[in-house]
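Render this sequence as a predicted structure.
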Amino acid sequence: MSNAINAGTIDDVVAEATAARRIGAHTFWSSQIFGHDALTVLAIVGREVPGIELGTAVVPTYPRHPMMLAQQALSTQAAINSRGDAGLCLGIGLSHKIVVESMWGLSYDKPVRHLKEYLSVLMPLLEGKPVSFAGEEFRVNGGVSVPGSSRPSVLVAALGPQMLRVTGALADGTSTWCVGPKTLAELTIPTLRQAAADAGRPEPRVAVALPVCVTDDVAGARARAAQVFAVYDTLPSYKTMMNREGVDGPGGLAIVGTEAEVRDQIAELASIGVTDFNAGVFAANPDEVARTNSVLRELA
């Protein structure tokens, strides 16, 4: 897999998606931070780069009413579907309390309830069904219709047990960042699978994103990862996952080492039930980029 940039021009994103397809990636992920709107850009990418699934990792729920997100996602899916091949994977998440309250001026009260109600509205709308829903946060009566579209798969950036149970019951799987193999095996995957089974849903998709670098300088790469991804060490939800994993920050989660070592670490993820691996390449020089992409090409 591959991860999109969130800076530069739209042409830069198209070029990166093209490069991801060239190395054999099955999915090209676009983040939604403070740059481009991910779904808008992917609608453009979908017209330019055929043969690869396009995913968001992830679109925050709080600023977007579920009916509005359903319209946008279905419109993006219609643009991608025109190619007649791989479609959209809609990754959504809550973002973080500091962003929701301090930047957007919205309430982060009862996030589990928010997610449950949000999915209760979003999922049927994506399936083309009208919604009549009366919750504490959302009261929705209506439907959407986007010709030429179909329901995208929906993954939720769920970390804690309650979020995972809601996700397993209502969505198609999860998309994680800063969650290591021990936590995935002991918490994420079994909780998600059990909730899906209890709800009579298919086995969930588990898309895991981690920093990756093939290098001979493991210590240097981990130090660089700690610096490049330092912001995630300050966000409580990610910090909780790293503490549970027993690592000291993002550097401890990075998949680094020789070709064989990186290959083995990624294979371990597959062995515990990870269905999709999203490689956040953070190489320091062209040689490391080439070596890392070579391994990813083999695995793809």
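Summary. The chain has two domains: 1-157, 169-300. The CA atoms of residues 168 and 192 lie 5 Å apart.
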